[in-house]
Write a structure and sequence with these properties.
Blueprint: H1 8-14, H2 20-25, H3 33-39, E1 44-48, E2 51-54, E3 60-63, E4 65-72, E5 75-87, E6 92-100, H4 103-116, E7 119-120, E8 142-146, E9 149-155, E10 162-163, H5 166-175, E11 180-185, H6 191-206, H7 215-230
Parallel strand pairs: 10-11
Antiparallel strand pairs: 1-5, 2-3, 4-5, 5-6, 6-7, 8-9, 9-11
Helix pairs in contact: 1-3, 3-4
């Protein structure tokens, strides 16, 4: 089906008059999911396993969706929740959650909400143990919060990998982060709150004004200034 833009921003995107970087630079609000489809053709998506069912051994078997039940006079009524993350693996990431009667509908609505919540993710080489200067990790230590869950993200040197759980690995890979250390506090078994806490950390990092130089180059410049003052 051909896309017919309904907003002013959508019309600008359809005409090719604005890019995704300019949208975030000017602080414009994305209200149509087709805008993201047009500007990021290589967009990928994944599902956060927020549901669970009793396992054979007494544990829990993770499921892509979570089903809740309400009792009415006419009988039980079921609702299905889904959480989807999207990204292009190169600095753009979004997350969305939705509720519907069917699994397929809930996942489709969550994917659309994730496109409306897409944000740029700042990357860099913020670890003092690494001097490569590439964007393989995050530039600074940052913390995010959602509900009772707090997540701290630490920049890691190149080659460490993603020292996070499997659900967070999906998020980091879609955001384009290859090396990371984390700490988590609170009821982190709640995967929906954990995922939203990581997303909150990304948003807080975007509010920071960061130096484009690597920590090693900053330290080298400071050392040279100290030597000049000593002379």
């Amino acid at each position: 089906m051909e896309w017919k833009p309904r907003t002013e921003l959508g019309k600008m995107v359809a005409q090719g008059a604005i890019t995704l970087d300019e949208i975030f630079t000017h602080g414009k609000k994305i209200k149509e999911a087709e805008i993201v489809d047009r500007l990021i053709p290589n967009l990928q998506s994944d599902i956060i396993f927020i549901g669970g069912s009793p396992g054979k051994g007494g544990g829990i078997k993770r499921t892509p969706t979570r089903r809740t039940t309400r009792m009415h006079r006419s009988g039980r009524r079921y609702r299905t929740s889904a959480m989807v993350v999207i990204g292009n693996g190169d600095g753009y990431f979004g997350i969305g959650k939705s509720v519907a009667v069917e699994n397929r509908v809930a996942i489709a609505k969550a994917t659309e909400n994730a496109k409306l919540n897409i944000i740029p993710v700042k990357r860099g080489c913020g670890s003092w143990e690494c001097v490569c200067g590439s964007g393989h990790t995050i530039p600074v230590q940052i913390e995010g919060k959602s509900g009772s869950v707090r997540v701290q993200l630490f920049p890691a040197p190149k080659g460490v990998g993603l020292c996070v759980n499997n659900e967070a690995k999906k998020m980091m890979r879609l955001a384009g982060i290859k090396d990371l250390w984390t700490k988590r506090y609170g009821e982190s078994r709640s995967r929906s709150n954990y995922a939203m806490a990581v997303f909150d950390a990304f948003k807080r990092m975007n509010r920071l004004r960061l130096d484009s130089r690597t920590p090693a180059k900053v330290a080298e410049k400071n050392y040279e200034e100290i030597e000049e003052e000593a002379e």
